[in-house]
Amino acid sequence: MDSDNLEEFLKKEHIDIAVICTPKSVSQQVAEQLVRCGIRAIWNFAPKDLKMPEEVYVENVHLNESLFSLTYYYNKMKKES
Predict the structure, then answer these.
(1) Total tally of structural domains belonging to the chain
(2) 45-76: string of b/e by CB count within 10 Å (b at 16+)?
(3) Which range of residues forms the domain containing residue 25?
(4) Does the pLDDT of residue 75 top 90, yes or no?
(5) Cα(8)–Cα(10) distance, rounded to whole angstroms?
(6) DSSP letters spanning the chain
(7) pLDDT at 1
(8) Cβ neighbours of residue 3 under 8 Å, at least 6 residues apart?
(9) Which residues are 3's β-sheet partners?
């Protein structure tokens, strides 16, 4: 989608939650643009924690930590069986 039409689309479709999966270098900029367009909750998969105003909820997902947990518990299960 063209970012010039983003605000119109988000308002027309009544969207207030967004998912970010961008390179680290642009994640904050993308998040700020989304907030200016009315987004109030962000599920962030970018490899950088976002700093947003208090009225915007951000769930920063750290895939590397999740992968570490997954492999740890998988290996533990293998040893126990």
Answers:
(1) 1
(2) ebebebebeeebebeeeeeeeeeeeeeeeeee
(3) 3-80
(4) yes
(5) 6
(6) --GGGHHHHHHHTT--EEEE---HHHHHHHHHHHHHTT--EEEE-SSS-----TTSEEEE--HHHHHHHHHHHHHHHHHH-
(7) 63
(8) 33
(9) none
CATH number of the domain residue 50 falls in: 3.40.50.720
Strand partners, 18: 42
Give the pLDDT confidence of 43-62 residue by residue, as tens digits.
999 999 999 999 999 999 98
Say if residues 19 and 43 touch (Cβ distance below 8 Å): yes
Task: Give the pLDDT confidence of 1-43 residue by residue, as tens digits.
Answer: 667 889 899 999 999 999 999 999 999 999 999 999 999 999 9
